[in-house]
């Protein structure tokens, strides 16, 4: 199976440069694990980073630097844990965020048969969650103020005429009115990353947020 | 990581993240580093006169004072030879430190440079020259450490050894480029980018700026920044024979 909806150049370059927040980067990395074509493009972007590194003005590293580093070198290579050959459904690095594969996801029911599971990242810019959409159903509570990246993990969804299958990434901004709907054959699980909702400092406003709808 | 925590870099960094270096040097230097000019990319790629092996056993030419860094790094991974590692260190440590100094104080830059070079040593056995040049690999290690130290975030990455990784179609033999060879093509392409494209690339790679920060700093619409990035990237991919942006 080949993915048909890929990473845009600007997203891929920002990821390679390291200037993309962790949440967006998780969506990018998940797509990369499922798309060899984008991995080849990433290699170009990272090679550009390497070549730019070569052109940087030099900050002299002194003999003292070398002595300090020399003292920290261990003789034996650090053993790298071999990944267990198995039949995982979710790729790394997503498994690391969940703490296991698909059956380790702690779903929180959304009331309509759909479910979500939030994933924690180090950035304050994004909100990351896994969504389970029952076969044939639309994505619930679907509004976002800014950008939204969605990567299909199992099943598939339609957005208008466009079909998104495993590995495909959808990059939607707030201007796009869309109602992604799972295909009727199977539940669809996807990774959805959005701009974090506004955080109010007052706990009273925070408590009222769901009522006020903000 | 604990060693660098004590510098408490956040305050420096908050300042640094809002700052965009003024566009002082817009173009990328057109000069090829000396070590590269006479570099031998494996004898089947470039044939240069007077090849000899020095005491490190690495290919060198009489005109080149430094060996092929990718070959050197691969050899370090196999042999764990500290003398060879010192050669690599002397080449990359000043560059990595300069990279770290773009977004942090000199003390933090020195510590992060050391972290990076120790990580290079520890992971050297995992380096595969067919996947990319040494500079590419070291850049990615430095980048991840910078993100971790300055932003307290991770840089999530796919695992090349993950058994469920969607496999690559085997590229045709004549299309498969060694890391160093493609790095050379990219280096040449970077020198011919229009200055405005080179500038957004540099801002993105070195200053840890999001596209919207770059747009604000250069007083440009976000769309212009994105399109400059796309144009620059298209040119880089073009020299490697990759086709247009898939969508």
Provide key terms for this protein.
heterodimer; A: 214 residues; alpha+beta; Jelly Rolls; 3-stranded antiparallel β-sheet; elongated; B: mainly alpha; Rna Polymerase Sigma Factor, Chain: A; two-stranded antiparallel sheet; disordered N terminus
Question: Any overview of this molecule?
Answer:
The complex is a heterodimer of chains A (214) and B (247). Chain A is an alpha+beta fold. Chain A has one domain (1-57, 90-198, 205-214): Jelly Rolls, CATH 2.60.120.10. Chain A is built from 6 helices and 9 strands. Chain A has helices at 9-17, 22-33, 36-55, 63-71, 94-98, 203-212, and strands at 108-109, 115-119, 126-133, 148-154, 156-159, 162-165, 169-172, 181-182, 188-195. In chain A, the strands form 2 sheets. Chain A has a 6-stranded antiparallel beta sheet with strand order 1-2-3-9-4-7, covered by helices on one side. In chain A, strands 6-5-8 form a 3-stranded antiparallel beta sheet, with no helix packed on it. In chain A, strand 1 and strand 2 form a beta hairpin. In chain A, helix 1 crosses helix 3. Chain A is elongated and about 65 Å long. The two termini of chain A are 41 Å apart. Chain B is mainly α. Chain B has 2 domains: 1-19 and 53-155, Rna Polymerase Sigma Factor, Chain: A, CATH 1.10.1740; 178-242, Arc Repressor Mutant, subunit A (Orthogonal Bundle), CATH 1.10.10.10. In chain B, 55% of the residues lie in helices and 2% in strands. Chain B has 11 helices and 2 strands; from the N terminus they run αααββαααααααα. In chain B, helix 5 runs antiparallel to helix 6 (106-123) and helix 8 (179-191) crosses helix 11. The longest helix of chain B has 20 residues, at 82-101. Chain B is globular, with a radius of gyration of 19 Å. Mean pLDDT of chain B is 76; it is low at 1-55 and 59-64.
In summary, what is this structure?
By secondary structure, chain A is of the alpha+beta class. Chain A has six helices and nine strands, in the order H-H-H-H-H-E-E-E-E-E-E-E-E-E-H. Chain A has one domain: Sandwich (Jelly Rolls).
């Amino acid at each position: 199976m080949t993915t048909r909806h890929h990473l845009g150049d600007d997203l891929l370059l920002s990821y390679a440069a390291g200037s993309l927040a962790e949440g967006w980067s998780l969506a990018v990395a998940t797509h990369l694990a499922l798309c060899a074509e984008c991995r080849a493009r990433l290699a170009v972007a990272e090679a550009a980073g390497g070549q730019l590194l070569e052109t940087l003005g030099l900050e002299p590293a002194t003999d003292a630097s070398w002595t300090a580093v020399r003292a920290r070198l261990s003789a034996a290579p650090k053993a790298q844990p071999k990944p267990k050959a198995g039949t995982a459904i979710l790729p790394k690095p997503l498994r690391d965020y969940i703490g296991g594969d698909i059956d380790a996801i702690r779903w929180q029911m959304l009331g309509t048969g759909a479910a979500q599971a939030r994933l924690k990242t180090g950035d304050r810019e994004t909100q990351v969650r896994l969504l389970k959409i029952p076969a044939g159903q639309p994505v619930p509570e679907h509004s976002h103020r800014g950008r939204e990246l969605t990567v299909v993990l199992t099943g598939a969804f339609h957005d208008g005429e466009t079909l998104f299958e495993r590995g495909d990434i959808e990059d939607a901004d707030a201007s796009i009115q869309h109602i992604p709907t799972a295909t009727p054959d199977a539940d669809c699980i996807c990774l959805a990353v959005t701009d974090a909702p506004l955080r109010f400092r007052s706990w009273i406003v925070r408590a009222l947020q769901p009522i006020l709808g903000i | 990581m604990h060693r660098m925590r004590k510098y408490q870099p956040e305050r420096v960094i908050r300042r640094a993240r809002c700052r965009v270096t003024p566009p002082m040097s817009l173009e990328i230097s057109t000069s090829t580093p000396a070590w590269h000019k006479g570099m031998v990319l494996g004898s089947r790629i470039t044939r240069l006169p007077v090849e000899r092996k020095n005491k490190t056993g690495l290919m060198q030419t009489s005109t080149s004072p430094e060996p092929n860094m990718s070959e050197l790094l691969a050899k370090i991974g196999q042999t764990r030879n500290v003398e060879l590692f010192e050669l690599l260190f002397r080449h990359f440590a000043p560059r990595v430190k300069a990279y770290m100094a773009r977004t942090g104080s000199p003390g933090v830059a020195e510590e992060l440079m050391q972290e990076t070079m120790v990580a290079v040593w520890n992971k050297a056995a995992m380096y595969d020259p067919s996947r990319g040049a040494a500079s590419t690999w070291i850049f990615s290690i430095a980048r991840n450490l910078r993100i971790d130290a300055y932003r307290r975030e991770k840089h999530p990455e796919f695992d090349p050894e993950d058994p469920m990784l969607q496999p690559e179609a085997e590229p045709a033999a004549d299309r498969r480029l060694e890391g160093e060879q493609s790095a050379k093509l990219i280096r040449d392409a970077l020198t011919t980018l229009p200055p405005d494209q080179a500038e957004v690339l540099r801002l993105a790679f070195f200053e840890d700026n999001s596209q919207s920060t770059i747009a604000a700093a250069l007083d440009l619409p976000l769309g212009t920044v994105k399109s400059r990035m796309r144009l620059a990237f298209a040119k880089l991919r073009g020299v490697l024979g990759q086709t247009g942006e898939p969508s």
